[in-house]
Every structure is written in structure tokens, then in C-alpha cells.
């Protein structure tokens, strides 16, 4: 991957770290089942997104970058689905988890979807053009 093409994967790593850390700061202090479960699950999802971005940074072939971008895409959708459908947040509307955790996780998930989609399309384009450069 060229030096100038490292910004988007680096941003994906940063968003992955944010997906893992932000829910830990914004969860409710009451440790209710939905909030705590979402915050703990987002650690795994955020680490998956960050590792996918790291693999894209270090990958030598477009095929590996396409696979890693696809994995990041799946993790991004899971990051959005966790507070909305899977584990949820607590039932009180004005708690920190509903005011901060849910919206921040959704925004970070959407940003991650955009970044991983851009990386996926760039990998497909490189594969079609036959660019099989090695990592430098």
C-alpha cells in the first residue's frame, strides 16, 4: 500500500478504538443489564474493527485488504445493532446510556461502515487493475 493510502485504514483503526472505549465511558453507573452488556460487547466489536484496519494497513495484496474490509464492515453493522436490537440499553430515557452511549455508538458505526466500504471498493479496484504491489 502506498504511503498516501494509509490515512483511511488509520482512521478505521482510530474509529475501532473509539467504538471500544466510548461505551465504557458513557455507560450508566447503575450497571443495568442492557448498558453493561452493550458496553462489554462493544469492546470486542471495536477491537475487531481496529484489527481489521491494522490488517489493511499491513496487507500486501488486494485480496487480503478486501477480506479485512469485509470483516470490518460486518463488525460495523454489529456495532450499530448492539445498542438498538441485540442487547439494548436501559429503559430510562434520560440516563447516560440513552443520551450518550446509543447515539455515539451509532455514529461511530456509520463512520466505520463508510470507511470500510471505501476500503473495500479501493481493494476491488486494485484487484481489477491488477495492482499486486507489496507492502513497503
What does it look like?
By secondary structure, the chain is mostly helical. The protein has one domain (19-129). It has helices spanning 7-26, 33-58, 62-86, 96-129. The N and C termini lie close together (7 Å). The relative contact order is 0.20. The model has no long low-confidence stretch (mean pLDDT 84).
Give the secondary structure arrangement, pairings included.
Layout: H1 7-26, H2 33-58, H3 62-86, H4 96-129
Helix pairs in contact: 1-2, 1-4, 2-3, 2-4, 3-4
Which descriptors would you attach to this protein?
136 residues; mainly alpha; 4 helices; 0% strand; elongated
Task: Summarize it.
The chain is built from four helices and no strands. By secondary structure, it is mostly helical.
Based on CA atoms alone, the radius of gyration comes out at: 16 Å
Low-confidence stretches: none
Shape: elongated
Strand content: under 5%
Number of helices, counting only DSSP H or I runs of 4 residues or more: 4
Count of discrete structural domains: 1
Report the structural category: mainly alpha
Portion in helices: over 70%
Q: Sheet with the most strands?
A: none
One letter per element, helices H and strands E, the order comes to HHHH
Based on DSSP secondary structure assignment, what is the total number of beta strands? 0
Compute the separation of the termini in Å. 7 Å
Round the mean pLDDT to the nearest integer and report it.
84
